[in-house]
Amino acid sequence: MALTHTLGFPRVGERRELKFALESYWQGATALDTLERVVADLCEQRWRRQADAGCSWVTSGDFACYDLMLDHAAMFGALPRRFGLDPSRFGLADSFALARGTPEQPALEMTKWFDTNYHYLVPELEPGQTFSLHASRYLAQLNAARRAGHPVKAVLIGPVTFLRLSKCAVPDQKLSLLPALLEVYAQLLDKLRHEGIEWVQIDEPVLAGDLEPEWQQALRTAYHRLQSERPRLLLATYFGSVLPHLALLTTLPVDGLHIDVVRAPEQLQPIAAALPATSVLSVGIVDGRNVWRCDLRRALHTLRPLQVERGERLWLAPSCSLLHVPYSLDSETRLGSQVRSWLAFAYEKLDELEVLRRALVEGEDSVTDALTQSDTAVVSRQQSRLVHNDYVAKRQRAIDPSMSTRPSPFDARIARQRAALSLPLLPTTTIGSFPQTPGIRAARAAYKRHELNAFDYLQAMRAEIAHAIREQERLGLDVLVHGEPERNDMVEYFAEHLFGFAITEQGWVQSYGSRCVKPPILYGDIWRPDPITVDTTRYAQSLTDKPVKGMLTGPVTMLQWSFVRDDQPREQTARQLALAIRDEVGDLEKAGIRLVQIDEPAFREGLPLRRDDWPHYLAWAVDAFKLASCGVRDETQIHTHMCYSEFNDILPAIAALDADVITIETSRSNMELLDGFAAYAYPNEIGPGVYDIHAPRVPSLDEMQRLLERACQVVPPQRLWVNPDCGLKTRRWPETVAALGSMVQAARTMRARLQEQGVDQPA
Fold first, then answer.
1. Which residue spans within 724-763 are E strands per DSSP?
2. pTM, 2 dp
3. Active site (catalytic) residues
4. For residues 534 and 569, is the Cβ–Cβ distance under 8 A?
5. Residue 152 forms beta bridges with which residues?
6. DSSP string of 625-643?
């Protein structure tokens, strides 16, 4: 009979218990053992929920207080020397030093987990890296699940994925570390065998991307080394098709294979035919990345032949870990009934798996009501007028290529902008947001509960804007922002003002560490009924003679950071978003705003995992940004921001965006990302971040000056801006003021030095 399991489960808690426990501990309000108790409770809750949903195993080893890649690095003794930590004494508190930095050392680099909005911490390896096993915390989780009476499937990030996603001081020597790394994997698997663990899910999502021959050989080497004296291995792949590696996969000595047939349904039949009959085939049939209900009738049609062929060697699962979706619809009391009927969160997805299992094993009559509800939801969504809007369709048909081109080339525009703005060499600015204080959050919550009327809420937000403007003027920043106090999130805020989006109450997912986001649900055609940001931006500009940037979120990021509709091509949805943002840009310009920043931090994140698919994505993603940004005069300066991604391989596309200024995250990598922009001779202006905002650490003035000096060595100073890595909403005012004060001073010092050398801002 078919069996069910999940590759991973949300870990922040239904009410973000992990977030609040972490932040309480970091602030010194609670002790470490209090945090540990919260972690134990959350683990027990997630195991119980999996068991209650009928899962054949509960999944353990997938819980991390901050990040799973970080935990694996610690478990394998791969700690950067610069922190001076002893792997044999490494504890939970030490992991936060690596994740958040210390007064002496910046944190580990952070980047996106494949094409998701989850950020992982990048392990730092060195040539000749030694590894040693320190698995007590990992094993304790497994044993806790077993003591609770659950059959346990252990989860590990696979050795090839771990190594490929790590950073090595000498990149071309990374593969030379594989044999030593495999020894600790072998030791761990042997321990798991002795603990009585029957199955280990070993995740190798790199198989969904391009793999050079040497990395394919690394997979062969790894799994032949790990084939003896171990539990049975389920090799888990997800986020795309693994058909290009099918010949390789059929030679690996593993006991089962998980594939994602939501992202890549075309791979199911070839893989099912090629996989030995004795192997388990785990079919990712329920979408682990999105919130739409599974079409159960269609899924059964897909699964029924496999059930006949494989019986209990057919496993049913979500396409990937459920880390990427919220917990449960039970908390959603304000979603419209029709939209709600189309959705399934983590709990509901487990229930869908059980319905599919029962239908296969016991017959469809055993789940008649569930199948009828699924059928009704499918038809409702296809026909709903909430989804389809004739006005939006007509406007899309009227898009003309000229709408995606600025009136003049960059050289002509920038001369007019410099004349209009009169900015100094190395102008200073921030990325947009300022600290979201307890007072701001309390006012927003009171407003949502109708305890604060609209006028009083507006006045409270205007007071916060005035405070942000005063602080920026006092610090001496050259281009100001209004601070975004009224915005709960850079995507959700805009979604609340656009038709075609639904907003959840508790739809939280983890972005990194304690940072949670609540992606809106993009269910229908998008249009903007009224201006969204004009009033607040115009008010901020009225408080100062310095220029204030209008702050918007770009179409690709709105797409990537929402639960996006799956009933039309993504590029079509991106164009709808671009038209809405284009209207907002035009209204800001009419209101006298001379700089507009259209943030696209998810631009690189949206890149397909295989290079053959890049050109199509980059073409429509660039076009969406230009459609949003190009309807302005030459004198209006368009900024964009990107962060925590590898940009060097898509620099032509970034240049094609034709933003007048791009700001990027570079401080954690010591400006390494900037080298690519210099080598490419990026033509427009650029602001490399000179300090990391994702940790409470306030860097010294000397550190910022060194980074700025390095930036001036690789990019002409006349084209450089000075700014933090990202927005400041997660920081507190004291550290924000201290860091920005040093940043402004570093810019002034470098500016004076350059002017002494005869370098000045061109006219």
1. none
2. 0.93
3. 694
4. no
5. 58
6. HHHHH-SS-TTSEEEEEE-
